[in-house]
Design brief:
The complex is a heterotrimer of chains A (593), B (247) and C (267). In chain A, 60% of the residues lie in helices and 1% in strands. Chain A is an all-alpha fold. Chain A has a single domain (24-551), classed as Up-down Bundle (Cytochrome C Oxidase, Chain A). In chain A, strands 1-2 form a two-stranded antiparallel sheet. In chain A, strands 3-4 form a two-stranded antiparallel sheet. Residues 1-9 of chain A have low confidence and may be disordered. With 247 residues, chain B is α+β, with helices and mostly antiparallel strands. The longest helix of chain B has 31 residues, at 2-32. In chain C, the strands form three sheets. A five-stranded mixed beta sheet of chain C has the order 3-2-1-5-8. Chain C has two domains: 2-69 and 81-114, no CATH class; 122-266, Sandwich (Immunoglobulin-like). Chain C is built from four helices and ten strands; from the N terminus they run αααββββββββββα. The mean pLDDT of chain C is 93. Chain C starts with a helix and ends with a helix. Helices cover 37% and strands 21% of the residues of chain C. The chains are: A mainly alpha (593), B alpha+beta (247), C alpha+beta (267). Chains in contact: A-B, A-C, B-C. Chains A and C meet through helix 3, strand 1, helix 7, helix 9 and helix 10 of A and helix 1, helix 2, helix 3 and strand 7 of C. The complex binds protoporphyrin IX containing FE and copper (II) ion (2 copies). One copper (II) ion is lined by residues 113, 138, 178, 180-181, 184 of chain B.
């Protein structure tokens, strides 16, 4: 029997299959559900990128069976120009929202944040369950747009108005497709708002005895900072999406100016603002890219510390840098709009914080590099992907120097340079963070180890492959190759086509390497070697509980924390590492209180 | 063995008779139906048609290098004959005749970055094909009035792409445009029942018209519509000539 | 494995730099008066970003190489100077670097956006619509007639919705599908969108500017080299986005005058 008077977090272990695995209140199950959703979304997003890449390399190549997806979008199995854009929009939307926000933040955060803070569960388990199921519904609403009307929207993941707001006269998918897109994203926002609320409260209110804020691991800090960003960013995107839907269904004109003419007919809208959407979108959009990457920073730091047997040079500096990134991320959003037609003085005003944000980013990188110095680095799939993350983050970061300057942005805006930049710094880096987290935490989540040889094969192909795909994007952009083109017919673009062919081949090979990962994941889930509770000899709380963790995370006794999270190679200690829960007295002058 | 041959012989006889009946049947029908003919003229001198600057797309510009393209709002023949006028029976048709549509699929071709024909007459629910003869991508964007029940569409057709096959649900004069080449402008004239489009001499012939009293409407994209009463005797021909004034 | 990884990082870093250093796919040649400032800013940034990129990748590779095979019993060491040194270095090095870039970059930006066009600049209006640009010249009277959206008729080649029967200013306006401009004269480009967002990008001109439906914006520039260049749209505007282009003809003054005369006859 349930004790109805007990606080929500103290719900008993469920017994029925549905309450255990489907509508579960357990943050660990919800974390795994998020992971599964992200995996499915990533596979779809990747398949879409293959179709796009094949089309960009060999425009007339018939991809067998493609007409089954859409007979009008791919007659004779060859993409039409509009269907290319429709798939591109879905690729971007699925990747940003349903992969990069769900996996590093919602999936791992759900599973590990309560454990790392020493909580039994999240404070609002019902909200948490809703958070996942709402996101789940949002995903299928988006996917549904493939199968209704004239298909998904072609407006790009940024959905600039007024193209997104004028309805089907704007092009295929611009009617029902946009409505479904905006509905899906609004639903998604609700899910993430509920999640963020839980994350923040867990971090602030649910910590176990002895767990001061500064004793939280870097992952917990990263999720906490991310959830604060999530709470503010998604709270802006959701109403923006609702206004967009109203422009479609209620005859409003929030984003459509007066007197627009298509096919010689004046559109029945008046008085809206084109730039309003861009401001609202990027006020969300820039924090969003940090929402995608900050959890990765936390995961990579956490994984590397364990594998270096040495804490970061400074725990606090990393935390403050991540917090600075979060705060600055709201002040820089205008760098997406340098040539948008907003006041050119604001472009300069947005340029300076953008340049300033390189300072905390540099500090984070220097902390990683400085901590590597003098470490006892162990090489395994998890640490390889973490180091790969750092390399990608550097490569993607330096191109930010260019894009931060309005004068150079005149040349590079809306070119493949931008595509290269965000794929490296956000796409690939965040994916590497997800991979690092997966190889690292898989034994805790499932009780089994993933195959190391397969993991390493996956890493090598992904690391080299990602560079082969995304570095050349920068060269294309410098040469003036405009993005969101389905073919390159302009005279000055024709010499660049061989580069596109090279990228396509690299993308296909790299894509297939991801199937190694999927195989490894599924195989190891059932057949991997059984692991102990603490295979990596880690110190934070997830390693002091059983594998898999019991329903209330810690069994009969709740943990008590005596140390900060990363006591490795402490002089005079009884072993190489001292767990947070170990009452052993150690002599470490730098210890957090 | 012989049994089989017998069967084959009977079968072919049956097929032959059926075919014959079908053909005869058609002839009988056609013999009973008349036609409406006439000429459409433009009153006064042909209006000046602006030249089209296809500078945007080198392919199109090259196709017209020696033969500059002009707008096709009024296409007037040597002796004032007005082309691209759709003449159709607007009143007097019985339900079955109105629903009738021809078996062949009319073709709307994109050639040298212009539409041929400029106006395509169609009946309701009649299937038609949009094809491209060009080495440049077009998009076909008809914009019917949504209140009629016709559903707008907008679809690209890259070079060499398969024909797009469509039909319309309700009678309407639907403008169609290529947004990639904004000068490309044409019409789907969707009507009920028999209709014809005038040629460059201005002549037209509506065939398959059952005997009866009709109102015939002639529609010109810029000059509007005119109507006339026509009587068709069984197997005979009615006649209606129209003269439009340019607007 | 760690050593191979370190070498791979170095090889990738070098390979990434080669196409840039060798100018394998260079920026199109500059034909504008303000472009030199942008190019200089770009070259400076490339230098600084390139050094940061190579230095950090090399350092990463070096540390991976060096610290992945500790001898048994070896102790972990701390980076000399610790976190404070690195934070100070980040503030000093990167801080001054970006400050310098920001301050100098302002000059290039200002030359395009924060200076008013010269009084004698040649006014040209460009209208973007799905999926073509049309250009308008004010004719001898120097003024553009008003645009009447409800009169826009691509069917009748009235792309700007001009009312030449009623509006005196519209009568001599010249509309063309190509943009011809005189060389070495400042052009004041007025940008109007008919329907959705578009952009005007001529890489050689070092000009990229979005159209804002409902809000006319303008840019000004001077082309210094006669030739034919491509104007492309860089703002996703629908299915024909990749196909939305026009040609820019930079002509000598005489050729330009002749062109205007010829176009005016065609109106
Ligand atoms: C398998 C590897 C991937 C390949 C080959 C790939 C390829 C592409 C290509 C060709 C485009 C179109 C670029 C354009 O014309 O603007 C694109 C757009 C995009 N991709 Fe990816 N991508 C990959 C992975 C990812 C990942 C992991 C993310 C996660 C952030 C991502 C996010 C995006 C976004 C946001 C867009 C922009 C869509 C838009 O313009 O609206 N991609 N990708
Ligand atoms: Cu066309
Ligand atoms: Cu465009």
């Amino acid at each position: 029997m349930h004790d109805m008077s007990a606080p929500a977090a103290h719900h008993g272990a469920p017994t029925s299959f549905i309450r255990k695995h489907v509508f579960s209140l357990d943050h660990k199950v919800i974390g795994k559900q998020y992971y599964a959703l992200a995996l499915l979304a990533a596979l779809i997003g990747m398949a879409l990128s293959w179709i796009m890449r094949i089309h960009l390399g060999w425009g007339n190549f018939a991809i067998p069976g493609l007409h089954l997806l859409s007979s009008t979008g791919a007659p004779g199995n060859v993409l039409t120009p509009e269907y290319y854009l429709q798939l591109m929009t879905m690729h971007g939307t699925i990747m940003v929202f349903f992969v990069l926000t769900t996996a590093p933040f919602a999936a791992f955060g759900n599973f590990f944040l309560p454990i790392q803070t020493g909580a039994e569960d999240m404070p609002f388990p019902h909200f948490n369950m809703m958070s996942f199921w709402v996101t789940f519904v949002g995903f299928w609403v988006l996917i549904a747009s493939f199968f209704v009307g004239d298909g998904p929207t072609l407006g790009g993941w940024t959905q600039y108005a007024p193209l997104s707001a004028i309805g089907s006269v704007g092009g295929p998918g611009q009617g029902l497709g946009v409505v479904l897109w905006a509905t899906s994203i609004a639903i998604f926002c609700i899910g993430q708002l509920l999640g963020s609320l839980n994350f923040i409260t867990t971090t602030l209110d649910m910590r176990c005895k002895g767990m001061s804020l500064m004793r939280l691991p870097l992952t917990a800090w990263a999720w906490f900072i991310t959830s604060v960003m999530g709470l503010t960013a998604f709270a802006v995107l959701m109403p923006a999406c609702i206004l967009l839907i109203l422009d479609h269904v209620a005859g409003t004109s929030f984003f459509v100016a007066s007197n627009l003419v298509i096919n010689d007919q004046v559109l029945p809208h008046s008085g809206g603002s084109t730039l309003l959407w861009q401001h609202l979108f990027w006020f969300f959009g820039h924090p969003e890219v940090y929402i995608a990457i900050v959890p990765g920073m936390g995961i990579v730091s956490h994984v590397l510390i364990t594998n270096m047997r040495k804490p970061m040079l400074s725990h606090r500096v990393l935390i403050y840098s991540m917090a600075a990134l979060a705060v600055l991320s709201y002040m820089v959003y205008g760098h997406h709009m340098f040539v948008s037609g907003m006041n050119p003085v604001s472009s300069l005003a947005f340029s300076f914080p953008t340049l300033v944000i390189t300072i905390p980013s540099t500090i984070v990188v220097l902390m990683w590099l400085g901590s590597l110095y003098g470490s006892k680095l162990q090489i395994n799939s998890a640490s390889l992907f973490s180091l790969g993350f750092i390399s990608m983050f550097i490569s993607g970061g330096v191109s930010g120097f260019f894009l931060a300057q309005p004068s150079i942005d005149i040349m590079l805006h809306a070119t493949y340079f931008v595509v290269g930049h965000f794929h490296l710094v956000m796409g690939v880096a965040a994916m590497f963070g997800i991979f690092a987290g997966t190889y690292f935490w898989f034994p805790k989540m499932t009780g089994r180890m993933m195959s190391e040889p397969l993991g390493k094969a996956h890493f090598w192909l992904s690391f080299v492959g990602a560079y082969c795909i995304f570095m050349p994007f920068h060269y294309l952009g410098i040469a003036g190759n405009v993005r969101r083109y389905q073919a390159f017919t302009d005279d000055y673009l024709i010499p660049l086509i061989p580069v596109h062919k090279f990228i396509t081949i690299a993308a296909l090979i790299t894509g297939f390497a991801q199937l190694i990962f999927v195989y490894n994941l599924i195989y190891s889930r059932f057949k991997g070697p059984v692991e102990t509770d603490n295979p990596w000899q880690g110190t934070s709380l997830e390693w002091s509980t059983a594998t898999p963790p019991p329903h209330n995370n810690f069994g009969a006794t709740m943990p008590v924390v005596y140390h900060d999270p990363y006591q490795y190679s402490v002089e005079g200690a009884s072993s190489d590492f001292v767990m947070q829960t170990s009452p052993e007295k150690i002599n470490n002058p730098n210890e957090e209180k | 063995m012989s049994k089989r041959y017998n069967f084959a012989a009977v079968l072919s006889a049956v097929v032959l008779i059926c075919c014959g009946a079908l053909i005869l049947n058609q002839n009988v029908n056609a013999a009973g139906e008349g036609k409406i003919t006439g000429t459409v003229k433009l009153d006064g001198p042909a209006p000046h048609m602006k030249g089209i600057d296809m500078g945007k797309d080198p392919y199109c510009a090259k196709a017209h290098a020696n033969d500059p393209a002009h707008l096709e709002t009024y296409v007037v023949g040597a002796d004032g004959g007005l082309a691209n006028v759709v003449v159709y029976i607007s009143e007097g048709l019985s339900g079955s005749a109105a629903a009738e549509s021809s078996a062949t699929e009319p073709v709307f071709d994109q050639k040298n970055c212009m539409y041929t024909p400029h106006v395509l007459g169609l009946t309701v629910e009649q299937k038609f094909k949009v094809t491209t003869s060009d080495q440049t991508t077009h998009n076909i964007h008809p914009l019917p009035n949504p209140m009629t029940g016709n559903i707008p569409w907008n679809q690209s057709q890259p070079p060499g792409a398969a024909p797009v096959e469509k039909s319309w649900k309700a009678p309407e004069m639907i403008p169609v445009q290529c947004n990639i080449h904004p000068w490309m402008h044409g019409w789907f004239a969707v009507v009920k029942g028999p209709h014809a489009t005038s040629d460059t001499k201005g002549t037209y012939t509506i065939s398959n018209v059952p005997a009866g009293n009709y109102t015939v409407t002639a529609w010109q994209e810029a000059a509007g519509t005119q109507t006339q009463k026509v009587t068709v005797a069984a197997g005979g021909a009615g006649s209606a000539n129209f003269t439009f004034k340019p607007k | 494995m760690a050593k191979i990884f370190a070498v791979t990082i170095i090889l990738i870093a070098i390979a990434s730099a080669v196409p840039i250093v060798m100018h394998m796919w260079p920026m199109p040649q500059d034909i504008s008066t303000h472009g030199a400032l942008i190019d200089e800013q770009y070259a400076d940034t490339m230098l600084e970003a390139g050094i940061s990129f190579l230095a950090s990748q090399f350092l990463l590779a070096f540390f991976i190489w060096k610290f992945s095979a500790p001898r048994p019993g070896e102790r972990v060491k701390n980076f000399p100077g610790g976190a404070t040194g690195l934070v100070a270095a980040a503030f000093l090095l990167v801080g001054t670097e970006v400050l310098a870039l920001g301050v100098f970059g302002t000059k290039a930006w200002a030359s395009v956006y924060l200076t008013p066009p010269a009084a004698n600049a040649v006014p040209v209006q460009v209208q973007a619509g799905q999926f073509a640009f049309y250009f308008r010249y004010p004719g001898p009277d120097g003024t553009f007639g008003p645009i009447h959206p409800e009169q826009i008729s691509e069917a009748n080649a009235n792309f700007f919705g001009l009312d030449t029967t009623h509006d005196q200013d519209s009568k001599d306006d010249i509309v063309a599908a190509e943009m011809a401009i005189p060389v070495n004269r400042e052009i004041h480009l007025l940008m109007h969108s008919k329907d959705v967002g578009h952009s005007f990008f001529v890489p050689e001109l070092r000009i990229q500017q979005d159209f804002v439906p409902g809000l006319d914006v303008s840019v000004h520039f001077t082309a210094t080299k006669v030739g034919r260049y491509e104007i492309v749209c860089t703002q996703l505007c629908g299915l024909g986005h990749y196909n939305m282009k026009a040609y820019l003809e930079v002509k000598s003054q005489e050729d330009y005058d002749a062109w205007i005369k010829q176009q005016s006859a065609l109106q």
